[in-house]
Amino acid sequence: MLTYGTERRPGDTVVISEKIALLLTDRTIPADPTRVQADARWLCRFVRPRPDSLGLAQPVKMQWVIDTLGRPRVYAAAAAAALTRPFGIRGGFYRVAGPAARDIDGGRPPYEHLLFPPFDVAEATELCEELAAKLEVGVAIVDINDYGGTIRARSAGALPERTLLGALADNPMRQRRTGTPLALVRPVL
Fold first, then answer.
1. Is there a single domain that holds both residue 143 and residue 111?
2. Could you tell me how many helices (H) and strands (E) the chain has, helices first?
3. What are the phi and psi torsion angles at 181 (to 5°)?
4. Residues 87-144: tens digit of each pLDDT
5. Residue in 30, 54, 29, 32 with CA at minimum distance from that of residue 44
6. How crowded is residue 99: how many other Cβ atoms within 10 Å of its Cβ?
7. pLDDT digit string, tens, across residues 141-151
8. Distance, CA of 139 to CA of 128 (rounded, Å)
């Protein structure tokens, strides 16, 4: 960004894909299918993935959620989904399990061998501040997809979260092979 990036102006915010930030800071986790336990394999059969994403239908991701949140919470989330889904209420699992279950990424090409856990907010904020000092503009780490997204962290000089979400709402960074890991959001004056 310093050498080849576009001209940055005061008020700009450099937006970095959470996946790239995790890769570059070595915070990914090996996706090891050999350690997936029976309950993760069983639970993932009931996940209804979106058309372009497997989500927790991948046993290795479900195992990470169980390891991270604990069996009692994951089982409670599964029970909530089982009780609410027949009434047309979707997302019960994620409401009980929380953002960690929703935000786990990876397990598909070209990173089928890696999982991308959600970036710890404090660590992501620290990275944003460090990069902002070097780039001399605001920095935000984001997890955006075609269904919405999250501003994981931002530096003190970055645009407000609401402004960033509005600018990124149509997913201009795209996904997978057609995506870009960086974007520049410039306020309209």
1. no
2. 8, 7
3. -80, -15
4. 999 999 999 999 999 889 887 778 889 999 999 999 999 999 999 999 999 999 998 8
5. 54
6. 10
7. 998 875 678 89
8. 5
Look up the pTM and report it.
0.83
- Same domain flag for 149 and 84: no
Same domain, 162 and 174: yes
Burial class (CB in 10 A: 0-12, 13-18, 19+), 41: middle
Residue 28 token pair: 């990914």
Q: Identify whether the C-beta of residue 166 lies closer than 8 Å to the C-beta of residue 149.
A: no
* Residue 6 located in a structural domain: no
* 176 & 151 share domain: yes
C-alpha span between 15 and 151 (Å, rounded)? 9
> Does residue 90 share a domain with residue 165?
no
Range of the domain at 71: 29-116
If DSSP codes are grouped into helix, strand and coil, which group holds residue 172?
A: coil
